[in-house]
Amino acid sequence: MQRLPEQFFEHQTLELAEKLLGKIFVRRISDTVELKGRIVETEAYCGEFDEACHAWRGKTARNSMMFNKPGMLYVYFTYGNHYMLNIVSEPENIPGAVLIRAMEPVEGEAFMQKQRGTMVATALLSGPGKLTKAFAINGDCNGKDLFSSEFFLENAPEIPQNAIATGSRIGITKSRELQWRKYILNNPHVSKARGS
DNA sequence: AGCGTGATCTTT
DNA sequence: AAGATCACGCTG
């Protein structure tokens, strides 16, 4: 299976959010445990005109990874409980990232079930805080990249336009009007909107 | 529909 | 130094 090269990530953030749909996120935990998930939901966060983006007011200690090279991981901690996984986009020194909001389990389900404390397949990776817990991703992963033996993306067929849905990003209060959430239509592993 | 949880950012 | 916010998940 082909690994996606650095050039794959060199697209505008919103475009990358679409192109990531359907691709396989891989984490090698050990020689014997490999975890794989198919990306089914993403959100774009980009630059200084997007008030929901952590970097809209400029570089800080937390968001500095968003200014790094495309294909790196930006992982941050929020709500006192949860790590969020983002893939950095945009050229160096320009802030941008794609939040991975949901995946479909492909390999390593036993490990994911143990991490999450549930056997329900659609509950393993169907939210940004859930999937980091399932993949044992924490702050130590911030700044790693997708071109190593530990983390990489596998190529997979492009999702046709008529199977991609667009909407407002979930859980934010600012810039609600931007339709920067992308997800695969009718996929049961997409996260539920908050409050429903 | 309400709450836990703690880092980060803004305001004093 | 204090207060508000937060790209959430769980219980009920």
In short, what is this structure?
With 196 residues, the chain is an alpha+beta fold.
Task: Provide tags for this entry.
13% helix, DNA-binding, 196 residues, alpha+beta, 3-methyladenine DNA Glycosylase, Chain A, 4 helices, single chain, 8 strands
Descriptive overview:
This protein is of the alpha+beta class and 196 residues long. It has one domain (6-184): Roll (3-methyladenine DNA Glycosylase, Chain A), CATH 3.10.300. It has helices spanning 13-19, 109-116, 121-124, 128-134; strands at residues 24-28, 34-46, 73-78, 82-88, 96-107, 151-154, 164-167, 181-184. Strands 1, 2, 3, 4, 5, 6, 7 and 8 form an 8-stranded antiparallel beta sheet that branches. It is globular and about 40 Å long. It starts with 12 loop residues before the first helix and ends in a 12-residue tail after the last strand. The relative contact order is 0.24. The mean pLDDT is 96. It binds a DNA duplex (12 and 12 nucleotides) through strand 3, strand 4 and helix 4.
Query: What shape does the CA trace take?
Result: globular
Assigned CATH superfamily: Methylpurine-DNA glycosylase (MPG)
Number of DSSP strands?
8
Supply the number of helical segments: 4
Write down the CATH topology: 3-methyladenine DNA Glycosylase, Chain A
Ranges where pLDDT stays below 50 over 5 or more residues in a row are: none
Could you say which structural class the secondary elements and strand pairing correspond to? alpha+beta
Main beta sheet strand tally, sense and closure: 8 strands, antiparallel
Just name the CATH architecture: Roll
Secondary-structure element pattern, one letter each: HEEEEEHHHEEE
